[in-house]
Amino acid sequence: MSEPVVLNTIAELRRHLTQWRARRQTVALVPTMGALHDGHISLGRIAQQRADHVVYTIFVNPTQFAPTEDLSAYPRTFEADRAKIAALGADAIFAPTPDVMYPAAFATTISLTGPAIADLEDRFRPTHFAGVATIVAKLLIQAMPDLAVFGEKDFQQLAVIRQLTQDLDLPITIAGGPTLREADGLAMSSRNVYLSTEERAIAPLLQRVLSEAAAAITAGEDAQGALTYGRDRIVQSGFTLDYLEWRDALTLGAPSRDKASRLLVAARIGKTRLIDNVGVAGGEKV
Q1: Which residue would you say has higher pLDDT here, 282 or 134?
Q2: What's the rounded Cα separation, in Å, for the pair 230 and 6?
Q3: From 16, 37, 40, 53, active-site residue
Q4: Is residue 40 annotated as a catalytic residue, yes or no?
Q5: Is 80 part of a structural domain of the chain?
Q6: Residues facing 54 on adjacent strands
Q7: 242 and 166 share a domain?
Q8: pLDDT tens-digit profile of 196-244?
Q9: Does residue 285 carry a pLDDT above 60?
Q10: What's the number of domains the chain is made of?
């Protein structure tokens, strides 16, 4: 097991990438905020299959946290993360400090419409995607990888990043990695550690509701009826529901049965907010 090189500055990152590109080798980027779990590692495996070199980024991005969200409480587990990345065999970790990514004179952010204002996550976290888009654009421009891999669990985020890459004419392929789940169906997330034992037992209900609603819609049943039933089950199980919606998988607008579509949910149980999504059969996969 070889140790990945840890790069802390943009100059170090670009120097390593230049060496690889001089040998005509391809590079894949896996952007993360650390606190890695098996889902993050699965993204690295996808990257390894499609590129010669894999670079993980670990950066807890302050601009995507709202004033009501506790940035300081976000888990930071760099040594454990580095061990997991080393076990995978990835080549490098880009771990800049906030002053590297946002120097004192920093004054630019990205303005968004399209899938960023789909009345899903943006309804509850109105500044979130501007922060995500800004940091992802910076990372993509800094590294200019051939490929960047993001998890499908954050499905609206993935749609925003695909749109951003297209609109800014970045010659980078954006790949989505399937959501990894625990044995009981709960989507793997860094936030799962905050669940109490009782909450953890209830949490997999979200995936069951999504799967049942998706099956009902695929079978031709009334979509609004399936959504209403699912929303009621989630609330009755002890969650505070933010949304359960059926959307077009590309635009996140109104869905149709002959195009790829997605069911998306966000709900709080105790102090922990969970999100998840599943595809609805029919149409082409995005």
Answers
A1: 134
A2: 45
A3: 40
A4: yes
A5: yes
A6: 28
A7: no
A8: 999 999 999 999 999 999 999 999 999 999 999 999 999 999 999 999 9
A9: no
A10: 2
